[in-house]
């Protein structure tokens, strides 16, 4: 039962991550987008600290771990607020309107251009079938897998090992061991995963962006990070069916993209 629930949690968290980062990225300007998404990714660690604090507060009760599952429902209620109060970004609204128009023309039997054809296809399949995005998606998938495999390995093995090593030490020394672990683990592993909430949003067009953000060792990830994709610093998000940024020729000074 625990494995089933953990699997469902992963599906929900992955969907929330992709949707949240996409929504925020389409609101922010190119100059502030990286910092804004980094702040959002950093809140992942804050959530761990809050969950730990709640556990320390209710641990005295019998079967207290069950209450953590119940309390885990509370943050999900925020989705109702977001759904009702947060408007869709203009960039996404424009893409949705273009998709509707393309499908209307398709039903009418009109001849569609390349951009319209892309808008009428299933977005998930295009991440793997469209040659412009297939290689990018595979490389990002391997990078994400390397980060998650490494993160879960460290997060499950190191606490258990620290407990065994510190079993014969004084309580104060054992406390220092865990504090040190949390600091090192948080800095390196959570920091390593931060790119997943930032970079994928910048290399896919609007109609694919939320679908293409994937969440799935370290040696493979380090090697692939050198060729994962083009530089996107200070550049606007690609629109509709635009090809992702080329690794050269930055926007000209004074142009709309340059600004």
What does the model show?
The protein is mainly alpha-helical and 259 residues long. The chain is built from eleven helices and no strands. The chain has helices at 2-27, 30-58, 64-71, 78-85, 90-107, 114-120, 123-129, 131-165, 171-193, 209-212, 218-225. The chain is globular, with a radius of gyration of 22 Å. It starts with a helix and ends in a 34-residue tail after the last helix. Residues 244-259 have low confidence and may be disordered.
Keywords:
11 helices; 259 residues; single chain; mainly alpha; disordered C terminus
Helix content: 55-70%
What is the strand tally? 0
Question: Which structural class do you get from the secondary structure elements?
Answer: mainly alpha
User: What's the end-to-end separation, in Å?
Assistant: 53 Å
Number of helices: 11
Average of per-residue pLDDT values: 75
The share of residues in extended strands comes to under 5%
Cα gyration radius (Å): 22 Å
Major sheet attributes: none
Instruction: Write the element-wise H/E pattern from the N-terminal end onward.
Output: HHHHHHHHHHH
- The gross shape turns out to be globular
């Amino acid at each position: 039962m625990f494995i089933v629930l953990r699997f469902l949690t992963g599906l929900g968290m992955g969907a929330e991550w992709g949707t949240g980062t996409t929504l925020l990225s389409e609101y922010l300007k190119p100059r502030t987008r990286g910092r804004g998404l980094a702040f959002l990714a950093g809140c992942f660690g804050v959530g761990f600290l809050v969950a730990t604090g709640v556990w320390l507060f209710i641990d005295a009760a019998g079967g207290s771990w069950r209450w953590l599952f119940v309390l885990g429902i509370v943050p999900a209620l925020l989705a109702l607020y977001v759904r009702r109060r947060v408007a869709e970004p203009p960039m996404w609204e424009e893409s949705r309107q273009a998709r509707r128009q393309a499908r209307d023309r398709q039903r009418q039997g009109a001849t569609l251009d390349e951009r319209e054809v892309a808008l009428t296809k299933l977005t998930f399949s295009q991440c793997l079938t469209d040659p412009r995005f297939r290689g990018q998606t595979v490389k990002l998938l391997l990078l994400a897998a390397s980060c998650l495999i490494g993160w879960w390995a460290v997060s499950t093995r190191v606490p258990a090992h620290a407990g065994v090593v510190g079993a014969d030490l004084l309580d104060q020394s054992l406390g220092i061991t865990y504090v040190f672990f949390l600091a090192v683990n948080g800095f390196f592993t959570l920091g390593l995963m931060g790119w997943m909430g930032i970079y994928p949003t910048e290399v896919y067009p609007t109609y694919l962006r939320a679908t293409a953000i994937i969440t799935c060792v370290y040696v493979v990830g380090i090697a692939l990070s050198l060729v994962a994709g083009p530089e996107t610093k200070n550049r606007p998000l690609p629109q509709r069916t635009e090809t992702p940024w080329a690794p050269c020729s930055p926007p000209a000074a004074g142009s709309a993209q340059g600004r």
